[in-house]
Amino acid sequence: MTRLIQIVFAVMLLLPGAARADTDALYDAMGLDRIVDVMRAEGLVYGAEMATDFLNGVGGPDWDRAVDDIYDTGKMTATLKTAFGDAMGDTDTAPLIAFFNSEVGSEIVALEISAREALLDDAVDEASRTQLEAALADDDPRLTLIRSYIDANDLVESNVVGALNSNYAFYSGLVDGGAFPFDMTEDQIIRDVWEQEQEIRAETEEWIQSYLLMAYQPLSDAQIESYITLSKTPEGAALNRALFESFNTMFTEISRALGLAASIYMGGQEL
């Protein structure tokens, strides 16, 4: 009996390491480190916009350094990788790794990343939205296929929830940092955040459609349909949940840190 217990315990020790290795392989196949690099670039742009629009330019070089530290790729990657591995749990990663290492999967990853990088340019972003308007006006069948992919992964709802969570974390950071000249309750924070839901939803729907319509333009309908098929498998659904949980964890940390950093320069000002 003792020997059996030892064997079972040894297997239990081995499994998490093996599962983590598989998850790391999936992480790499999906190019998530490159996504983090793009998100850092997006974050630095957002930080610069905050300095002008939210802080009225009072932050200066200190604010720039704070934003640079908050969007540190090492920190972001560590948080994301750990959260992703935890969220994937014991999901069978083999079919997912096989897909993203395939010719189609690799192309999809490359297109998603390159499109995200391109959208850092305001002119490209505007062009993608114009392309969406044209697709809507023409009732483009490709847009219908893109929407099928969006629906299969519940992208709009998940992104809206993620944005609301990030906004809540940001407000919490402001409050904890003493940004307001009054006591702000949790109920007030929730109300203020929830008031942004419709605007966030409209922007999310437009951005996701325009982004994917541009990103997947070189793909055939069959290639997109293969991605949709993967998304509908138990493994694909688990991956989608894990991605949103892990990115939500990362962005919640970032948003709270931004709120705390911004509170220093607000000094109890009214918003």
Number of domains: 1
- End-to-end Cα distance: 67 Å
Task: Provide the structure class.
Answer: mainly alpha
Helix content: over 70%
Strand content: under 5%
Shape: globular
Q: What is the number of strand segments?
A: 0
Output the radius of gyration.
21 Å
Report the order of strands and helices.
Answer: HHHHHHHHHHHHH
Helix count from the secondary structure assignment: 13
Mean pLDDT across every amino acid position: 90
- Low-pLDDT segments, ≥5 res: 1-19
> What kind of sheet is the major sheet?
none
How are the SSEs ordered, and which strands pair?
Blueprint: H1 2-29, H2 32-53, H3 60-70, H4 73-88, H5 94-101, H6 103-118, H7 122-138, H8 141-152, H9 155-176, H10 186-194, H11 197-215, H12 221-231, H13 234-266
Helix pairs in contact: 1-4, 1-5, 2-3, 3-13, 4-13, 5-6, 6-11, 7-11, 8-11, 8-12, 9-10, 9-11, 9-13
